[in-house]
């Protein structure tokens, strides 16, 4: 079976289902993560070529789950550069109800001892509201000359098989045999807030020093999660009325833009094909 794409890039704000999709794709033989979950391969043609060579001979699709790429100033130029060389790109954008995502992010930030937690609840809330997907972000994605697949978080988690069916159909890959879909990155409570904060600091340092493969291995280790955290059983955090209005308005506009620019192919799943045909040539193999 011949795959229709060379590069699958998944973007979207944190707590929108990227790790859930990452764990699903790791189960499929046609999708490859040669180094880490967040590769940002589009930033460097040399880096992309090196990673692509490691999977091209096997006939697999290079996957890059880079959450914050949707706000990366280098995304447009990177996609254009890859497309001009003949690289076939499918960009998957994950979208979640902004209010639900903000609540989940607050719980998650507290559970991981993120630095913003120490600055107070309102400061944390304002920061998370600013990080939500904006209409401008959606328009920026739609302006890219690449095929786009928008997947709503609720659709991905509640009707996983249908979402994966659309994805595999677009990619030309074999269907998922029996995907094990279970909740990941659940909100937890740190056994010790200072220890959890220290772990977050170590993670940041390792990423900046380039120890990404080791870091990804540690993040995927269930034992460390059990060592640092326990299940969170607190009530749903309350957002301020102003934050709720801002989030609801942004979500409505984002949904409207997607609905007007992309074709609905399943509940919560939209597809937008690139305007230009694939250039001649092809990626380095």
Kindly describe this structure.
The protein has 285 residues and is an alpha/beta fold. The chain has a domain of 166 residues: P-loop containing nucleotide triphosphate hydrolases (Rossmann fold, 3-Layer(aba) Sandwich), CATH 3.40.50. It contains twelve helices and nine strands. A hairpin with a 2-residue loop joins strand 8 and strand 9. Helix 6 packs parallel to helix 12.
Task: Provide a concise account of the structure shown.
The protein contains twelve helices and nine strands. The chain is α/β, with parallel strands linked by helices.
Approximate shape = globular
What average pLDDT do the residues reach? 85
Summarize the main sheet.
Answer: 7 strands, mixed
Classified by CATH, the class of the domain at 7-98 and 133-184 and 251-272 is: Alpha Beta
Helix share, percent: 40-55%
In what range is the share of β-strand residues? 5-15%
CATH topology label of the domain at 7-98 and 133-184 and 251-272? Rossmann fold
Q: List unreliable stretches of 5+ residues.
A: none
Query: What is the CA–CA distance across the termini?
Result: 18 Å
Number of helices: 12
CATH superfamily of the domain at 7-98 and 133-184 and 251-272: P-loop containing nucleotide triphosphate hydrolases
Helices and strands, in N-to-C order?
EHEHEHEHHHEHHEHHHEHEE
Strand adjacency order, main sheet: 2-3-1-4-5-9-8
Find the count of extended strands (DSSP E, 2+ residues): 9
What's the architecture of the domain at 7-98 and 133-184 and 251-272, going by CATH? 3-Layer(aba) Sandwich
Look at the helices and sheets and give the structural class: alpha/beta
Radius of gyration: 19 Å
